Amino acid sequence: MIDIHTHVIPFVDDGSPSLEASLEMIKHELSVGVTEIVCTPHHIFGRYTKSIEEIKYNFDLLVKAVAQEKLPIKLYLGQEICYTHREDIIAMLENKQLLTLNNTKKVLLEFSFKREPEDVQEIIYNFRVKGYQVIVAHVERYEWMTFAKVIAMRAEGALIQSNSGALIGQTTWKEKRFVKKLLKHGLIDIIASDTHSFRPSTLGKAYKKLKNPDLFNFKLD
């Protein structure tokens, strides 16, 4: 399995408070069958704004620790970027101030949970015309999200990611029902863990429940 949405790098966001905690998270991922992890620390305007240099420094610390522990897992670097009109996200990507997933043209993008963007289709279109493909993070968590909006976003070229916790009923009944409906209609492209030190990965449980390997093996190319 490939987990494309994780917060396992220490010291850069709310994901991990220490190198030891990060290693425990990775060991847990290994125990459920994950073989590749994309590390996606938050970028949230006014809250999590570590520089790329700081993120890479701590990522390298983690990679070295994994090698020392001889853990059989591949680590890649990316970010989970929270969209806001207060920043020009596309310009920041092109200026290397923000990270795509593993240096590809794929961008893990999240939105405000409560406040709907003015035109989410146009946002995704703007990324697409610049050559980027948006992966919408944890689609079930947005209060404003609807079935029709998911269809519209996919029509603009976005991929849809859901958290494994919602699939197994670890979150709210509403989120679980929404994910179930999207899966029924083939509207989810990727299942990932969104793991933090306080929220262990449930990817293994989701994999056993869903039995659809394609949703857990997204290729970063």
Question: Taking Cα atoms only, what radius of gyration do you get, to the nearest Å?
Answer: 16 Å
- Write down how many β-strands occur, each being a DSSP E stretch of 2 or more residues: 9
**β-sheet strand percentage:** 15-25%
H and E order = EHEEHEEHEHEHEHHEH
The CATH superfamily is: Metal-dependent hydrolases
User: How many domains make up the 3D coordinates?
Assistant: 1
Derived from helix and strand composition plus strand pairing, the structural class reads alpha/beta
Share of residues in helices: 25-40%
Mean pLDDT: 97
Question: Major sheet: size, sense and barrel closure?
Answer: 6 strands, parallel
CATH topology: TIM Barrel
Q: What is the CATH class designation? A: Alpha Beta
In one word, what is the shape?
globular
The termini sit apart by 16 Å
CATH architecture annotation: Alpha-Beta Barrel
Q: How are strands sequenced across the largest beta sheet?
A: 3-5-6-7-8-9
**Number of alpha- plus pi-helical segments:** 8
Give the low-pLDDT segments. Answer: none
